[in-house]
Amino acid sequence: MSSPASSSSPAPATNAVNDTPPTTMPLDGSKITPIVTGGGSGIGLGLVKEFLKYGSPKVIITGRREHVLKEAADAHPGKIFYKVSDAGSASDREELLAWVKENHPDCNALVNNAGIQRLYAPVEDQGSWEERSKEIEINFSGVVHLTTMFIPYFLEKKDETCMLANVSSGLAFVPYTYAPVYSATKAAVHSYTMAMRYSLQSTNVRMVEIVPPAVKTNLGGSHDFGEDLEEYCSETMKLVMAGHPEVGFRFSEKARLGDRATTDGMMDFVSSTMKTPTY
User: Fold this and answer.
1) pLDDT tens, 137-156?
2) Is 178 designated active site?
3) What is residue 228's predicted lDDT score, i.e. its pLDDT?
4) 3-state SS, one letter per residue, for 56-102
């Protein structure tokens, strides 16, 4: 659940997807070999399938559950390769880059998609700090660590267009009071991605931010509201491949482009609709 608003949200002030001109040249899917963290299910797997549709020779996926990764790879033999790797573990992240260099040296794109979401009433949360901090470690620390490790590797590929894509959330702009830490980590991902995009603007590395709304996945627990996964991933990848550096969809598109009054109103709407407690 990337954002709790569903299609019943107030009509966006913008079109369903970004209709502004792209700011960089289109990407050639046949020349992209990406690694997608959390790529065995949900939005991650949806993006993986889109990469293959756009001609990627292969896609590498990571995650903590081997049976999920294997199922995805078995469904696309010779096209999807996997490694069990925890985005919340610094040692796993370091090992991942070494493994990529040795086994998939043609990899030239990283999609930081792995994430977890804890839903709780903040005042009543009795979780240990170890449990709480996992959300920060996976959602933000992992993104920063992997990004900073892969940048030098991609910069060495001077004759290739490489890509770093970070998956944030509409909740980066409209925090959900029942997921305050998740919302904060995604706001941090947004800020970090903006800064890195500016820093890398004259290099061969594209810095992209993918901003999902609520999508029908198992993030934050199984649920049946939000955007259709296949439609969302298709529309998002269309804009990423066209050269858009930041891509929202419906609720999250309105959120990322909204002024303060708009996002405050959206936050009130979401919180009241989801009946989140106040004290």
Assistant:
1) 999 999 999 999 999 999 99
2) no
3) 93
4) CCCEEEEECCHHHHHHHHHHCCCCEEEEECCCCCHHHHHHHHHHHHH
